[in-house]
Specification:
The complex is a heterodimer of chains A (about 190) and B (about 325). Chain A contains 1 helix and 16 strands. Chain A has 3 domains: about 60 residues, Roll (SH3 type barrels), CATH 2.30.30.30; about 60 residues, OB fold (Dihydrolipoamide Acetyltransferase, E2P) (Beta Barrel); about 60 residues, Nucleic acid-binding proteins (OB fold (Dihydrolipoamide Acetyltransferase, E2P), Beta Barrel), CATH 2.40.50. Chain A is flat and about 60 Å long. With about 190 residues, chain A is mainly beta. Helices cover about 0% and strands about 55% of the residues of chain A. With about 325 residues, chain B is α+β, with helices and mostly antiparallel strands. Chain B has a single domain, classed as BirA Bifunctional Protein, domain 2, CATH 3.30.930.10. The longest helix of chain B has about 30 residues. The chains are: A mainly beta (about 190), B alpha+beta (about 325). Chains A and B meet through β3 of A and α7 of B.
Chain lengths: ~190, ~325
């Protein structure tokens, strides 16, 4: 069991059978009153967030979470299959749990698979992936690499994002999988 | 707050943080000197009372650190009241206080308190005085009676005063007295529903609290289920707490007993009896009102910094 005093950013807790991670945390103490812990919690299964304020007397369960390094194998419709490189055990996660992350998977990519009570619920991707720009309008002449203006583009896997004006079709770019945003150009096409 | 542990591990970040705090020290000193001028003009005497004390005020939710047979004070309240009992009439103190475990964007385990008492004044007169010295500090610092905090202009010209019961009804649809009966519920509603709804463009005062929320406040004559207490908020930050001070020794002893019992029940440190203070209140404390203002928070507000760590010398961790 955790008590409210254990709460901090990044702590994973379980409330009524649902695992959450604390994404924001603020200590409050209204004048002469009891301490309060205001948190924003992210549901580790659905990804939705909510606000919750805890009192010092509140207790939270420790979620039974396990993270394993696995490799992405293939997908079969809505099911994404990951395998353990040593035991060859396969687990499957449906697209609902993965959201936009499905765009960033590639064959044999090493991922951390998060299990809650033995059931896979999420994956952590490598922070950056490298992909080719499949479509984007040519940038206007004279734009430099320091430009902050962005234009729409599509990766070779169909994922849409915005990129600086100097990026052209065929360029290879790095994308930050945590934010889904363009990070930098790797090479010109 | 900025990641304090990261700072400790990274000496260069800590060096830069100190440099940025140092950049604000002239403003901090200017605010202190404007406050002192305002208190002197109102004939208050600046006093110093011990930081290491034998018996902290036995409050339910405030923890004093231990220091070799002493405690570090959580507030100078009991010592300053002893000064009132021996005849001082208008006193103030600007100095360090300690509250274990309080750490956040508005809390530090060591902070600076401005505490003041006035004999023969009631809590409403102290509200007028507080309003006037806040105005004069703001004018002295900014040349204007308003300032910007978190992108919001706050004008000190007018205060909004809202009774606690009305605020709970209006902003939370809740009964303040009923909330006060359940451990932590009053505070939860206050923090989640009432405080966020308070007007942002002027200081706001919550006044007349359920009796449970006034350790040293006297019951209101017209309604003894309430105590004479107000809290002033600016920019969503709780800045100062004020009581019409309890001077009845029997009620004070009863409250100390109750708090000590709560502390025992909650397995918190038991404090020795505040005998010197009890002797003072037995001999007779004059009618008075007293207030405690978070000096670091005032600096945060007037200098436009939303985190207490931005305006205070970094604490060793």
């Amino acid at each position: 069991m955790y008590s409210a005093a254990d709460l901090k950013k990044g702590l994973k807790i379980e409330i009524e059978g649902v695992p959450y991670t604390v994404t924001e945390f603020e200590f409050c103490k209204p004048g002469k009153g009891t301490a309060l812990y205001r948190c924003r919690l992210k549901n580790l299964v659905t990804g939705t967030t909510m606000e919750r304020t805890f009192r010092p007397v509140d207790k939270m369960d420790v979620p039974n979470l396990e993270e394993r390094v696995m490799f992405y194998s293939y997908h079969d419709g809505n099911n994404y299959i990951f395998s353990d490189s040593e035991t060859f055990e396969e687990v499957q996660i449906t697209a609902d749990y993965l959201g936009n992350k499905t765009y960033f998977l590639s064959d044999n990519m090493e991922c951390n698979v998060l299990f809650f009570n033995g059931k896979p619920i999420d994956i952590t991707l490598p922070t950056f992936i490298v992909r080719v720009i499949a479509e984007t309008e040519p940038g206007a002449r004279g734009d430099t690499a320091s430009s902050n203006v962005q234009k729409p583009a599509k990766l070779d896997n169909g994922y849409e994002l915005t990129v600086p004006l100097f990026i052209n079709q065929g360029d290879t770019v790095k994308v930050d999988t945590r934010t889904g945003l363009y990070a930098e150009r790797v090479s010109k096409g | 707050m900025p990641n304090a542990s990261a700072k400790a591990e990274n000496p260069s970040a800590s060096f830069e943080h100190l440099a940025s705090v140092a950049g604000l020290l002239p403003v901090r000193a200017r605010i202190a000197s404007l406050l002192r001028a305002a208190f002197e003009a109102a004939h208050f005497i600046e006093v110093e009372t011990p930081v290491g004390i034998l018996a902290p005020a036995a409050e339910e939710f405030i923890e004093a650190p231990r220091a070799e047979g002493f405690f570090l004070r959580t507030s100078p309240e009991l010592q300053m009241k002893r000064l009132l009992a021996v005849g001082m009439e208008r006193i103030y103190q600007l100095g360090p206080c300690f509250r274990m475990g309080e750490n956040g964007r508005r809390h530090r385990p060591e902070f600076t308190m401005l505490e003041f008492y006035q004999v023969d004044a009631d809590y409403l007169e102290l509200l007028d005085f507080t309003h006037s010295f806040l105005l004069s500090v703001c004018r002295g610092l900014h040349g204007d009676s308003s300032f910007i905090f978190n992108g919001q202009k706050i004008s000190l010209e007018k205060l909004e005063v809202i009774p606690v019961r009305e605020a709970f009804r209006r902003f939370a649809g809740k009964d303040a007295d009923r909330c006060a009966e359940e451990d932590g519920l009053f505070e939860m509603v206050l923090v989640d529903s009432v405080e966020p709804a308070l007007p942002k463009d002027r200081p706001c005062v919550l006044i007349d609290y359920p009796v449970r929320f006034g350790a040293f406040a006297r019951p209101k004559a017209s309604d003894p289920s309430l105590v004479e207490r107000w809290e002033i908020y600016m920019g969503g930050i709780e800045l100062a707490n004020t009581y019409g001070e309890l001077i009845d020794p029997a009620i004070q002893r009863e409250r100390f007993r109750r708090f000590a019992e709560t502390r025992r029940r909650m397995k918190l440190t038991e404090y020795p009896e505040a005998t010197a203070f009890l002797e003072a209140i037995d001999r007779g404390l004059p009618e008075c009102a007293g207030s405690a203002l978070g000096f670091d928070r005032l600096v945060m507000l007037l200098s436009g910094h939303p985190d207490i760590a931005d305006v205070s010398f970094p604490l060793d961790s």
